[in-house]
């Protein structure tokens, strides 16, 4: 209480000591002021929010209601009838402004300053020069195109940002009002190849790209894009003839999409729908499958756009990334030249062929062959000749792999269970004996004259995601049907098995040259880890809360393509230098 009384006494003393006395607020003075004065309302854009304040127009001068100004800046406003002064006070920044009608002087935190325009009283309200009061309250006020633009926290702060637009670098300028960023419509339009026109009479802004026309104005939150009206999160404005707007709003209105965290704009939008099985064509291009359309795409990861669509799925990419192979529903083998986009049928054989694997020289394809997956064969691509390498009639071979030097084959096989019947005619099944049917890894030495399949394992666990390392060591994920026992990562070296990662929820595993990559899930967090056998050490590459379903490390650099599960299906993302980016939506 003592501080308040002391402050009032000090303010009164300082006001009394000013060069000329403050005019009395009597009825005669008020009546004289009213004679040539008109009151109305004024549109104000405060940090992107449209508001109206009461305005006073006198002899070409526009003043704004002091109480409304205080409200815009979240300040307190009061009138002291005893000492006949008005007070505007703001705590952040700490400002106390004392004003009196008709006086071109004010007290700011106890110090006298000159005012450009004397405050005027109209009715029960004091009207003030908005520009100067805004500056005293720690902000900025500027009027253009019929709308006052207000920053309540500091002056308008210009900025420039570097964005990737379809993979190319673009600079976009902007202004910050308060804590809200607005972007130059001219710069965004230029990135889209669009034009901008501002009507000098109406302040209407028109952005045109081809047949698409976007209209908005600084008096409204409404944006009209091709006849479709949408609501803007913040009101646009014009400064120095340049319109500024919310970035996402103008990007979407122009038909594009935006990843703000990555500062990436796709002018034609991102590829949408389920995308799976990414394969690296080169350092900047992925081959991805599109199950919804039964097709594949060549995806440029810099622009995140499709370079080409292929009307086939389940393509197997050649080692040099220039060709891809597939088998149609009739069992015929085809090779697509991804450079020339030509398709060649390889031979006339229509037997079932699965698990295609390219030879290192790209001249042949290995496959699991036969309707019951009972053989392993190689197809010569120059003439379509098929040669069976393994024809032991053991059914259900899967996961065919070729060593990096092309001298060894690896596959998984599970023997059939023995069916016991109750009758001699074998029409009524009594039981099925599944002992000895556990899947096992089989190795074939292609340099051997006999090419005999050699079992590498005999354990009862499931064996998935098997792969060769560059030194011919073999790794695989060992899993059981017991939900309480998580998978393990195992390696076979010189016939000796060792565990590299024990009892972890391994989602996927991939090998690139001598490095092993795994995705491990724990408590809803998905972590990609890399194992270097030469140092026997693990390194964390990246983490995310999004569900990773598969990984495809690049053989060219440190990038990793991943598939992630979403509500709309799986999409492809990229992990680069610890940062995530969406390639498809």
Automatic annotation (TrEMBL):
State the Gene3D superfamilies in the record. Answer: Copper amine oxidase-like, N-terminal domain, TolB, C-terminal domain, YVTN repeat-like/Quinoprotein amine dehydrogenase
Domain of life, source organism: Bacteria
Listed A to Z, the keywords are: Signal
- Copper amine oxidase-like N-terminal domain location: 47-143, 165-260
Asked if the keyword Nucleotide-binding belongs to this entry, the reply reads no
The positions making up the signal sequence are 1-24
Keyword Cytoplasm appears in the UniProt entry: no
Per its record, how is this protein called by name?
Copper amine oxidase-like N-terminal domain-containing protein
């Amino acid at each position: 209480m003592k501080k308040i009384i002391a402050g009032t006494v000090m303010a009164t003393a300082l006001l009394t000591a000013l060069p000329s006395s403050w005019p009395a607020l009597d009825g005669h003075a008020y009546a004289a002021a009213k004679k040539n004065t008109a009151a109305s309302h004024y549109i104000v854009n405060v940090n992107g929010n449209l508001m109206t304040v009461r305005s006073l127009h006198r002899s070409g001068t526009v003043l704004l209601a002091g109480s409304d100004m205080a409200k815009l800046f979240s300040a307190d406003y009061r009138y002291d009838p005893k000492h006949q002064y008005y007070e505007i006070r703001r705590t952040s920044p700490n400002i106390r402004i004392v004003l009196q009608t008709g006086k071109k002087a004010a007290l700011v935190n106890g110090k006298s300053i000159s005012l450009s325009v004397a405050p005027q009283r109209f009715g029960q309200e004091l009207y003030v020069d908005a520009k100067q009061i805004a500056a005293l309250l720690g902000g900025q006020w500027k009027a253009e195109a019929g709308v006052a633009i207000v920053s309540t926290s500091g002056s308008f702060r210009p900025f420039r940002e570097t964005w990737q637009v379809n993979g190319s670098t673009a600079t976009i300028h902007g202004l910050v009002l308060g804590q809200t960023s607005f972007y130059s419509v001219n710069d965004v339009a230029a990135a889209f190849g669009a034009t901008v026109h501002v009507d000098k009479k109406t302040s209407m802004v028109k952005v045109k790209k081809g047949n698409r026309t976007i209209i908005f104005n600084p008096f409204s939150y409404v944006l009209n894009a091709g006849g479709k009206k949408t609501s803007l999160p913040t009101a646009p404005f014009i400064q120095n003839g340049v319109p500024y707007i919310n970035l996402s709003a103008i990007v979407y209105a122009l038909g594009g999409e935006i990843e703000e965290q990555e500062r990436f704009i796709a002018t034609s939008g991102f590829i949408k729908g389920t995308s799976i099985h990414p394969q690296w064509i080169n350092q900047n291009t992925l081959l991805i499958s599109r199950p919804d359309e039964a097709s594949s795409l060549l995806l440029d990861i810099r622009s995140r756009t499709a370079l080409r669509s292929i009307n086939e799925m389940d393509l197997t990419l050649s080692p040099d990334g220039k060709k891809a192979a597939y088998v149609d529903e009739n069992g015929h083998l085809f090779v697509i030249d991804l450079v020339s986009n030509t398709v060649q049928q390889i031979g006339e054989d229509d037997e079932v062929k699965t698990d295609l694997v390219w030879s290192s020289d790209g001249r042949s394809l290995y496959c699991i062959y036969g309707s019951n997956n009972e053989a392993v064969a190689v197809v010569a691509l120059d003439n379509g000749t098929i040669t069976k390498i393994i024809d032991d009639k053991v059914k259900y071979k899967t996961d065919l792999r070729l060593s990096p030097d092309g001298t060894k084959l690896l596959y998984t096989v599970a023997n059939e269970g023995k069916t016991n019947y109750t009758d001699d005619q074998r029409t009524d099944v009594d039981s099925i004996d599944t002992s000895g049917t556990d899947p096992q890894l089989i190795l074939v030495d292609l340099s051997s004259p006999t090419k005999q399949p050699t079992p590498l394992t005999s354990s009862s666990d499931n064996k998935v995601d098997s792969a060769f390392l560059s030194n011919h060591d073999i790794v695989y994920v060992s899993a059981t049907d017991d939900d309480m026992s998580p998978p393990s990562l195992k390696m076979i070296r010189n016939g000796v098995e060792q565990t590299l990662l024990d009892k972890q929820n391994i989602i996927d595993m991939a090998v690139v040259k001598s490095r092993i990559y795994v995705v491990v899930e724990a408590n809803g967090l998905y972590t990609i880890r890399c194992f270097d056998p030469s140092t026997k050490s693990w390194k964390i590459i990246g983490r995310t809360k999004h569900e990773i379903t598969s990984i495809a490390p690049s053989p060219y650099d440190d990038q990793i393509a991943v598939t992630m599960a979403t509500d709309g299906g799986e999409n492809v993302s990229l992990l680069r230098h610890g940062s995530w980016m969406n390639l498809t939506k």
